[in-house]
């Protein structure tokens, strides 16, 4: 009897541990948007086919856009991972987004999902190189507020303006910036700003700065001790403690044609260098 009870207790303990682990491992889903216009079965098939390829085709820069199908059932998709998300984390986030959006928006022609580490968007119209500021959602810390609200807001706006401009000046591989500033009461404010790298420098700056004079900004950023605004083409976030991880360097002057080719450009460069070296050696001899 005691042996059976102990075995049952042990099994319950294992199940509880697994349940806790699953709960802790759940990623933070921030928000989503669905356009519930009914789509055709052909559109849904194209959507499912396209979404299933996004994770594996996204490289270390965390951005990918593609399309599939013929009009009127063409589906366009775009993914953007946070610049400090490791590739495996990025791809897992994209897969989570794919499953989540198919669950939340089974029949819609357009949907966007935001997690902490990525955004996934699909639609029936081309999105590449087009800045989209709406829909826009605020997310903020509901547990803690700052004391000197106006001074904090002023310091935050200046920091975000600076980071927005810095992110906008990034190239076609990445538009991202992070930094910090000293706010009121000697508080250090940490923040990041990021745009999809396919939009122009001006559009990126407009996307970030355009969120300042909105109700969303008042909700997320005028009082709470942490918050963010998420948009289809950009997002920013701030906290009172460090939250940005290590960010891989983008090679200076790296041509966009090398993007996603898994080292082939480096191999070509090595071959060219060897060829040049051989030519010099032959000329000397």
From TrEMBL:
Record keyword Protein biosynthesis present: no
Keyword Signal: yes
Xref: Pfam families: Stress-antifung
Start and end residues of each Gnk2-homologous domain: 25-127, 133-243
Signal sequence segment: 1-25
Gene3D superfamilies documented for this protein: Gnk2 domain, C-X8-C-X2-C motif
Keywords carried by this UniProt record: Repeat, Signal
Superkingdom, natural source: Eukaryota
Transmembrane regions: none
PANTHER family xref list: CYSTEINE-RICH RECEPTOR-LIKE PROTEIN KINASE 25 ISOFORM X1, CYSTEINE-RICH REPEAT SECRETORY PROTEIN
Name of the protein described by the UniProt record: Gnk2-homologous domain-containing protein
Classification lineage: Eukaryota, Viridiplantae, Streptophyta, Embryophyta, Tracheophyta
């Amino acid at each position: 009897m005691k042996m059976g009870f102990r075995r049952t207790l042990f099994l319950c303990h294992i199940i509880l541990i697994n349940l806790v682990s699953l709960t802790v491992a759940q990623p933070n889903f921030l928000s989503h948007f669905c356009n519930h216009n009914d789509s055709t079965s052909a559109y849904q098939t194209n959507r499912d086919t396209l979404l299933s390829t996004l994770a594996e085709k996204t490289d270390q820069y965390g951005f990918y856009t593609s399309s599939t199908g013929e009009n009127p059932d063409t589906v366009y998709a775009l993914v953007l991972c946070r610049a400090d998300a490791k590739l495996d984390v990025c791809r897992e986030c994209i897969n989570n987004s794919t499953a989540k959006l198919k669950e939340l928006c089974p029949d819609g022609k357009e949907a966007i999902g935001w997690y902490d580490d990525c955004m996934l968007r699909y639609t029936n119209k081309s999105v590449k190189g087009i800045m989209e500021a709406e829909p826009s959602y605020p997310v903020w810390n509901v547990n803690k507020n700052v004391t000197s609200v106006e001074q904090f807001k002023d310091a935050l706006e200046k920091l975000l303006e600076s980071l927005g401009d810095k992110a906008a000046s990034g190239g076609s591989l990445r538009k991202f910036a992070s930094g910090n500033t000293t706010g009121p009461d000697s508080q250090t404010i940490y923040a990041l700003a990021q745009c999809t790298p396919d939009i122009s420098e001006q559009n990126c700056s407009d996307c970030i700065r355009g969120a300042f004079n909105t109700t969303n900004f008042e909700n997320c950023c005028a009082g709470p001790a942490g918050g963010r605004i998420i948009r289809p083409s950009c997002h920013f976030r701030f906290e009172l403690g460090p939250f940005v991880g290590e960010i891989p360097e983008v090679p200076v002057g790296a041509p966009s044609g090398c993007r996603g080719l898994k080292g082939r450009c480096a191999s070509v460069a090595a071959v060219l260098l060897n060829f040049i070296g051989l030519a010099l050696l032959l000329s000397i001899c």
